[in-house]
Amino acid sequence: MRVLVTRALTPRIETILRAEFAAEFRERDAPMTLAEARDALATYDALLPTLGDALRAEAFTGPIRAKLLANFGVGVNHIDLAAAKAAGLAVTNTPGAVTDATADIAMTLLLMSARRASEGERMLRAGGWTGWAPTQMLGAHVTGKRLGVIGMGRIGQAVAKRAHFGFGMQVAYASRSPKTLDVPATPLPLPDLLAQSDFVVLAVPATPETHHLIGAAELALMAPHAHLINVARGDVVDEAALIAALQAGRIGGAGLDVYEHEPHVPPALIALENVTLLPHLGTATEEVRDAMGLMAVENLRAFRDGTPLPNAL
Ligand code: NAP
């Protein structure tokens, strides 16, 4: 079974893939172009693709040999699922493996944004620290504050647990469907959640419905001291509107792990002090990347063996 692995993976996962499949690895550790995607779909039995690979609708219009896209990652917004299915491919992902690590990065960003951690470190490294002072770099207190989670799925709930049980935060959430939760949390319509939260965390998938879910109108509903944290996908936020809100001080700050046109980060965002910028670190630990790889491998094995795919979408 010929498998194209589109990016370098951890040593443990590459060893398994080489032992069990006729696996080939792309040499460039960058997203597949459309031309590469078309070629790969015509050449291999299965692909192990990931974030940014150009598996949009046009990729599926040529000759197709592949029958499976075993995606590495839970987010599949780089794959046109309808086009893939119409072309006879199954698509799987790696839910669950990413949850805790991504929730940890949401809390990292929330704390860094609230406590001005990036700004303080930049100041210190630039030699600008003159010593402790009672009114120096005062940030926002986190304990006991109100958290609004948008997208109360696996990651949203993991963030809610950390915030409630770890920081005594009062949690509200905006969701499409009713939830049975093991953390106290109040459902609210999105406008109410935006208006009432001290911190807003985005944990929805990127879909046509969530594109620019947070734009100028939604940012205007947020309190002037409130912080927006995005660990979902960049295009869930209208980045230009966010930059305008941050420049004007209409919200207290933002913590971002993802960007609308990543890896491009607008210079206007980089120039701002009231935003914390991480390079899409949500799942970036060896253990989690191993766990994601093992889930993708299980899907490849099931496909090879003709058994039900564990994580079919
Ligand atoms: P999940 O369990 O499917 O949760 C997503 C939640 O979003 C679901 O509860 C869903 O509601 C909700 N939702 C979807 N559309 C919505 C809308 N229009 N309005 C309100 N809520 C909506 O997925 P997950 O595992 O938590 O992952 C969420 C996303 O995080 C992924 O799709 C991925 O893009 C992103 N992610 C980022 C990183 C990173 O490195 N930064 C890492 C992992 C994942 P229902 O329950 O009603 O379906």
Instruction: Indicate the CATH architecture of the largest domain.
Output: 3-Layer(aba) Sandwich
> What is bound: which ligands?
NADP nicotinamide-adenine-dinucleotide phosphate
Strand order of the largest sheet: 8-7-6-9-10-11-12
**Can you tell me the residue ranges where pLDDT is under 50 for at least 5 consecutive residues?**
none
Q: What value does the average pLDDT take?
A: 97
Residues in β-strands, percent: 5-15%
Distance between the termini: 22 Å
What does this structure look like?
The chain has 2 domains: 3-97 and 285-305, Rossmann fold, CATH 3.40.50; 99-277, 3-Layer(aba) Sandwich (Rossmann fold). The chain contains 11 helices and 12 strands. The chain has helices at 11-20, 34-43, 81-86, 99-114, 117-125, 154-167, 190-196, 216-221, 239-247, 267-270, 286-305, and strands at residues 2-5, 22-25, 46-48, 68-70, 90-92, 146-150, 170-174, 185-187, 199-202, 227-230, 253-256, 275-277. The strands form 2 sheets. The chain has a 7-stranded parallel sheet, with helices on both faces. Strand 11, helix 10 and strand 12 form a beta-alpha-beta unit. Belongs to the D-isomer specific 2-hydroxyacid dehydrogenase family. InterPro entries: D-isomer_2-hydroxyacid_DH, D-isomer_2_OHA_DH_cat_dom, D-isomer_DH_NAD-bd, NAD(P)-bd_dom_sf.
